[in-house]
Automatic annotation (TrEMBL):
SUPFAM superfamilies: eIF1-like (SSF55159). One of its GO terms (biological process) is formation of translation preinitiation complex. Pfam families: DENR_N, SUI1. Residues 116-183 form the SUI1 domain. It comes from the Eukaryota. This is Density-regulated protein. The lineage of its organism: Eukaryota, Metazoa, Ecdysozoa, Arthropoda, Hexapoda.
Length: 199
């Protein structure tokens, strides 16, 4: 086992550092500022910093270039209120550094690629329906969309799932024109043709 201690973990006064150390916590992820970069939502952290602690934000941008000891972030002028509590915390339970921040992940919705999928599926021998999924990834109100399709095609159309609309009749080809027309943010390239699907 190596006994070497990384320089930044060495306990004791360091040159050029003012004591007592204070730790500034990020308002976005609740972690000490130097941990922000490991947080999945680092961009938001930066935004928060820029807004609330512009001085630290500038430092961070510089720090990215690599000054090495980016560690203790307490010397900034803006770090005051939260500093004291932090010191106490760290001596009592050294292993915990506001862990909840790291567990927070983005909502699944944001990860889902934006895409609308159209497919046709047989209903009985002659009838088919058109299934539209993915409208919700564009934040479109499914109920309104179903109603719109119903009116447009003069046929039954209803919301059948979390992000699924079933239109009575084969209107798949028309949808490729109608959807971008109705919702300009959905380019035709975002619409996938899944062909005939068995359900
Ligand atoms: Zn942060």
């Amino acid at each position: 086992m190596a006994t070497e201690v990384p320089e930044r973990l060495v306990i004791g006064p360091k040159e050029g550092v003012t004591y007592p150390l204070t730790v500034t916590y990020c308002g976005n992820c609740s972690m000490p500022l130097e941990y922000c970069e490991y947080y999945p939502d680092y961009e938001k952290c930066k935004q928060w910093l820029e807004k609330n602690l512009p001085a630290e934000f500038e430092r961070m941008k510089m720090g990215a270039a690599g000054t090495g000891d980016g560690g203790a972030s307490g010397t900034g002028p803006a770090s005051n209120a939260t500093g004291e509590a932090a010191d106490g915390d760290e001596t009592k339970k050294p292993q915990k550094r506001g862990g909840k921040g790291i567990m927070k992940t983005k909502k699944a919705k944001d990860d889902t690629p934006k895409k609308v999928c159209l497919s046709r599926s047989a209903r009985g021998k002659r009838k088919s329906v058109t299934v539209v999924t993915g409208l919700a990834t564009f934040d479109i109100d499914l109920k309104l969309a179903a109603k719109f399709f119903g009116t447009k095609f003069a046929c039954g159309s209803s919301v059948t799932g979390d992000d699924e609309i079933v239109i009575q009749g084969d209107v798949k080809d028309e949808l490729f024109d109608i959807i971008p027309e109705k919702w300009p943010e959905i380019d035709e390239d975002f619409i996938d043709d899944l062909g005939d699907q068995k359900r």
